[in-house]
Amino acid sequence: MGRTARNTDRAETVTAGPGPVVVGILNITPDSFSDGGDFLDPEAAAEHAATMLDEGAEILDVGGESTRPGSDPVSQEVEIGRVVPVLERILSVRPEAVISVDTYRACTATAALEAGASLINDVTALRGDPRMASVIQEAACPVILMHMQGEPKTMQKEPHYEDVVGEVRDFLAERAEYAVTAGIRPENVIVDPGIGFGKNLEHNLDLLRNLDAIVDLGFHVVIGASRKSFIEKITGVQEARDRVSGTVATTVLAYERGATLFRVHDVRANREALAVAEAVLHTSRR
Ligand code: HH2
Predict the structure, then answer these.
(1) How far apart are CA 68 and CA 36, in angstroms?
(2) What is the residue-averaged pLDDT of the chain?
(3) Spacing, Cα 224 to ligand 1 middle (Å)
(4) Would you place residue 145 in the very low, low, confident or very high pLDDT band (cuts 50, 70, 90)?
(5) What helix, strand, coil percent values describe the chain, rounded to 5?
(6) Torsion-angle region of residue 231: left (phi > 0), alpha (psi -120 to 50) or beta?
(7) Would you please indicate which residues are annotated as catalytic (active-site) residues?
(8) CA-based diameter of the chain, in Å?
């Protein structure tokens, strides 16, 4: 329990800091859209984790189930069996690592926090499992609340909004209020418009363009646009791994609009772009 408390404190320190925070993605899945199958072996996963930390990731986001469009859920046992050994392996070589776990299941979150995870990334914004809010509240750790219309299996089949920015903002405000009412401290709430989760190209662009409406809610904002298919629609780059430049553009624009956390696959490129953006936008700090 001592270890859990220390690790969750560390997550709060990272998310509360002034600077942009790079969250490196580590998918322990056979079917993730851009890195599926690369890190199923805990050794390979830990090696990639160390590389991302060395490249400047302040947080690692470890996921054991793909939520790409069309994906199927896996069982809780499979998810825990993928995530926990990797967490243990990473923390045995890099005990200072701040690790987020991408899960909407309370049991997985509990097992991950016990194994040393520092925060939880819940793409259902505490709607997927009624016990999740109390797990977060008891651990006193940060939580990412993400907007999604529909569910991964079908979410990209004609997503529809009257006013995407207003609807996503209102949803996040309601979920944040739910979290705070459940005893989660407001400083520990991080909101995410959920780029690509039940959104077409125009919806994604509208959200990125008007991100200040979500920043104005007063919570930390995370953006997860890395390598997503809307970048292909704009640039024509079909290979997901090659969508680095398009991703970096979203990172810089979202940073300028007030987002502070960036969930990305390509840590070095995004870290360098943020350093330059930071220097231009905040010259008084230098
Ligand atoms: N995107 C993905 C997964 N989890 N979590 C948050 N908070 N925000 C996101 O935008 C987000 C997320 C999907 O990307 P990826 O993890 O690369 O792929 P997959 O779901 O196929 O594993």
Answers:
(1) 11
(2) 93
(3) 7
(4) very high
(5) 50, 15, 40
(6) alpha
(7) 228, 263
(8) 50
Give the number of the atom of ligand 1 that is nearest the alpha carbon of residue 31: 21
pLDDT at residue 170 greater than cutoff 50: yes
Say how far residue 28 (Cα) sits from the centre of its chain: 15
Tokens of 97: 């690592």
The per-residue pLDDT for range 105-127, each reduced to its tens digit, is 999 999 999 999 999 999 999 99
Handedness of CA 110, 115, 119, 124 (dihedral sign): negative
Cα–Cα distance, 168 to 31 (Å, whole number): 27
Local confidence band at 3 (pLDDT 50, 70, 90 cut-offs): low
Q: Cα(67) to centroid of ligand 1, in Å?
A: 6
Q: Considering only 3-12, 85-94, 162-171, 253-262, which range has the smallest mean pLDDT?
A: 3-12
The sign of the dihedral angle between the CA atoms of 73, 77, 79, 81 is: negative
Q: 244-269 as b/e, with b when 16 or more CB fall inside 10 Å?
A: bebbbbbbbbbbebebbbbbbbbbbb
Pocket flag, ligand 1, residue 79 (CB < 6 Å): no
State how far the Cα of 160 lies from the Cα of 199, in Å rounded to an integer: 8
Residue type for position 130: P
